[in-house]
Amino acid sequence: MRRLPSGTVTLVFTDIAGSTRLLEQLGEHYADALAEHRRLLRATFEGHGGVEVDTQGDAFFVAFEKASDALAAAVDAQIALAVQGPIRARIGIHTGEPALTDEGYVGIDVHRAARIAAAGHGAQILLSQSTRQLVDHGALRDLGEHRLKDVGLLRIYQVGDETFAPLKTLSQMNLPLPPTPLVGRKRELADLLRLLRAERTRLVTIVGPGGIGKTRLALETGAELVTAFEDGASFVDLSAVRDPELVQPTIAGALGIGGELVDHLRERELLLVLDNLEQVVDVAPDIARLLDACTRLAVLATSREPLRLRAELEYPIRPLAEAPAAELFRQRARAIEPEFDADYQRLAALCDRLDRIPLAIELAAARVKILSTDELLSRLDRRLPLLTGGARDAPERQRTLRATIEWSYELLEEDERRLFAQLAVFVGGWTVAGAEEVCEARLDTLQSLVDKNLARPENGRFRMLETILEYALERFEESDEAEQLRSRHAEHFFALALRAEPEVTGAEQHLWLDRLAADYENLRATFEWYAATPGGAAKGLRLASALVLFWFNRSLFRDGLHWLERMLAEAEDDATVARAGALWGAGLLWALVGDEERAAPRLEQGLALAHRLGDDTNIARSLEVLGLLAFFENDVRRARDLLEEGAEVARRAGDHWGLADALGTLGSIYPLQGEFDRADTVGTEARAIGRKYGDRQGIRMANFGLALTAARRGRLSAARSLSEEGLAICREIGDLWFVSYFLWILATTAVESGDYEAARAHADESLKIARELEGPLLVVCALDAKAAVARVEGDDEAAQGHLAEAAEIGGSQIVPHSYLASVLRGLGELAAARGDLTEAEACFETSLARARGVDDPWAAARAIASQATLADARNERQLARALARDALALQRQIGDQLGAVESLERLASIAIHDDEMEDGARLLGATSALRERLGAPLPSWQRRGLQEVEDLARHALGEARYEASARQGSELSVEHAAREYFGSASRSE
Length: 989
Fold this sequence. Notes:
The protein is of the alpha/beta class. 64% of the residues lie in helices and 9% in strands. Strands 2-3-1-4-7-9-8 form a seven-stranded mixed β-sheet, sandwiched between helices. A hairpin with a 3-residue loop joins strand 8 (140-148) and strand 9. It is flat and about 115 Å long.
C-alpha cells in the first residue's frame, strides 16, 4: 500500500445505502455484486491518486493529497455505480489535518468525514465547507448548517442539483440537543444500539421511575441511530398529551406531515422516539397496528410502565452505578460552582441516599452554592423539600423531585393510590404474602405498581426507592388507616419471628436466618411499635427473646442488646419464659462483646427465673453461657463444671441446639487442658447431633473444637479440613464471629504448613472481621496469626506491633489466658531474636504463668520449650537440656506432635553444642523426616539457627558419618526418637 499523505488531507468515506434491503433483494447474488462494487471503487479511487486507509464490509475510507482529486474520484465513482446496477453509495468528503499514526489517521477530522457520509443518501455526494473552499466545481448546492453527532455544526454542500430526502443529521431529525453529556449509561446505550441497529427490534420501551434518565438515554440512542435508518430518527414528546386519540396527530405534527400517519410511514425506514407514554398507554393497540402496517418502522418508547404488546421488548433502566453517580454530581455541581470539590466517598454516600437517581442528583447538586456535602447529607432524611429548584428550561414536572413523583401518582387509579400509600408501612421492603396480609393487597394492583415503576421487585421481594417511599409515607400519614395498618404490620412480623424461632435451630435455619435478615428493618419497626403502644411491652419482650439466636448468628450483638435491654426495661414486671429467654440472650451477647460485669447479672437473673418456672431449656442455656463467661475469666474448672451441667440439663430438656452448643464449647475448652481425646469425643457427639437435626450452628461449634484439637495435636490437614467446612457453614448462615475464628485456625495451620500466601489472606480477613465485631478474643487471636505471618515473611517489626497490641488488649479485656500465653511467648521469641534476653526471659515466664494458671499443658510446654532455647543461647546447657526434656515429656503426654518435634530440634541443637554430634545428627534426621510427615516445614525464622548446628555436626562428623546418622534418625517416630534420646542422655549422664 502507498504511504498515507500527511498534513492537509482530504478524506473520503463511502458506504452502501439500504444494504439490508439490498441483501434481501439480491439474496445469493449479493456477494458477487458487493465484490464488483469494491473492485469498481478501488479502481476509480486509485486512478485519481487515492490511498485506501481502511475497508470494512461495504464501507471505504480513502485519503487524497488534493481536494480536487477526491471530488473528481467521487463523481466518477457515482457515475460508474449508476451504470453498474442496483448498488447505490453515499459519499462524504472533508478536508482537514488529521494526525497520522502507525494505525492510520486519528482526530476530529476523521469523525467529521465519517458523519458527513453517514448523513447522506444513496447516489449522493456531500462535502464540508473546508473542502468546498479548495475545489472549483460549479454544480455545488449549499445545504446549510447541520448539527452532526459528536462533531457539532458543519456547513454541508451537495454535488449536483438532484433532489434527495433531508439529510440524516440531528438538525433535520427533530432530535432535541441534550444540554449535558450522558454520564454512566454506556452499557445501557450499547444494549439499545444492539437491539435497534443490529437485531432490528421493532419496538423497545425504556421503562423506569421518574427522574431515572429515560428521556436522556432515548435521545442519545436516537442520535447514535440517525444514520442507521434510511430516513433517520425523529423525536416526539408526548408528555402534554392525555388523550390516546391525540397521539397519532401529535406524531404527525412532529414529523411535519398531514393526512393519515400510516400512509406517510408505510415505506419509510425510520426510528420513531416516543417520549412519555405512561399517561397514554391505552394507545398501545394503535402503535401495534402502525408497526404492522409500516414494516420498516421502529419505535423506541419511554414510559413508567410497559405497553404490554407482543412485539415489545421491555428495557428496564436502573439507578446509576456508584462511580457514575458520584461523577454526575461532581459535574453538575461544578457547572454551578466551578471550585466545587468533595471526597469521593462522601459523594458516593450522598448519591446512595439519593437512590443514585440522576434527577435527584442534579437537584441536590443545584444546592452546592449554599450547602456543603455534609449539610446535604444531614438534610436527606427529608429529601423532597430539599430537591427543588431545577433548571428553568427543564419540564415543569422535572423541576422538583416531588413533581416528578406526583406525575406518576396522579396517573394511578384509586385502588392503586390506596395500595401505594399503604405499602409505606413496610420498612426495607416486603413480600407478596406480607402485602396481602397487612394491606389486603390484590396481586393485580401490586403488579400494576411494579409495572409503573413505583415498586421494584428484588430477589423475590419488593421495595420502593427511598425518594418514592418518602412521598408514599406522606400519603400514608394523611390516611385514616395508618394506625390500623401499623398494628397489622406489627402482628405480621411478630408472627414471623415466633414461627422462625424453632426453625433457626433446624435443617432450614440458613433460609430462616436469611428471611429474618431480609425483614430486619420491619422487625425493628415492630419493636418501636410495641415500645410506644400501651400494653405492647410483653409482646416486645417475647419478640426479643425469639430473635436471640438470629442476633447471635448474624453477629448483631450491639443491636440485639439494644432491643433486649429496652424490652426488659419496658416489661420489668414480666416473669415469663420470654423474660428468662431474653435475660439469657442479653447475658450471651454481653459476654461476646466482652462486658462480663453486665453479662453475669443478666445470666444469674435468667437462671433464677428459669428455675422458678421449671424451664429446663433456659436453665441449660444460662448455665452454658455462665460457663463460657467463667472460661473468659480464666476460671476453667468452674467453666467446665457449668458447661457439663448445662449439657446434662439440655439433654434432659430435649434441647438439641443447646446440647450441641454445650458439647461443642466443651470441645473447644478440653484441648486447652491438653485433653485431646476427651475433646474429640464430645466434639464428635456434638457434630452427630448437629447432623441429625440439620443444625449447621451445632456442626460449626463442634467443628471449631475438633479443628482446634487437631491443630494442637499437629494434625494440620485435619485441622484445615474441619476449619474449611466450619468456615463454609458460617458464611452460609452469616455467622461472622466464627468466620473470624475459623480463619484464625486456617491462618495458623497455613503458617505451619508453609502456605504463607494463604496464611496472610486468612489472617487479614480474620482481623478485619474481628475489629468490625469488636470482639477482644477474636482480635487477639487474629493479631497473633498476623504476627506469625509477619515472622515467616521476615518482618519482625510488624510482628512486634501485632503482638504488642494483642498483649495490651488481652491485659485490659476478658481474653482467656490460654490465648494470651501464646501472644506473650511470641513477644519473648522476638525479644530473643533481637538479643534482648532479659525481656525474652520475662515474657516466657509470664507466658508460662498464664498457661499454668489455667491448667493449659500445651501452652505451658511451648513456653518451657522457648525457655530451653533461651538457656541454650546463654550457653546454659544443663538448664537448656532439662527444660527441653520437660517440654518434650509434657508434649508426649498430651499428644502435641509438632511441639514434640520442635523440642527434639532444641535437644539436637543442645546435643551438638555439647559435642554429642551423632546424637544430634540422628535427632536432626528424625525431625526433618517428622516435619515432612506432618506437612510442617521448618519456619524461615528458625531455619538459620538450625542450619548452623547442622553445619557444625557435618563438619565434625564428615559428610558420610553425618548422613548415616541422619538416615538412622529419619526412620524414627516421635516416640522412638524421644526414647532413644532419653536413653542416650541417661547413659551420657
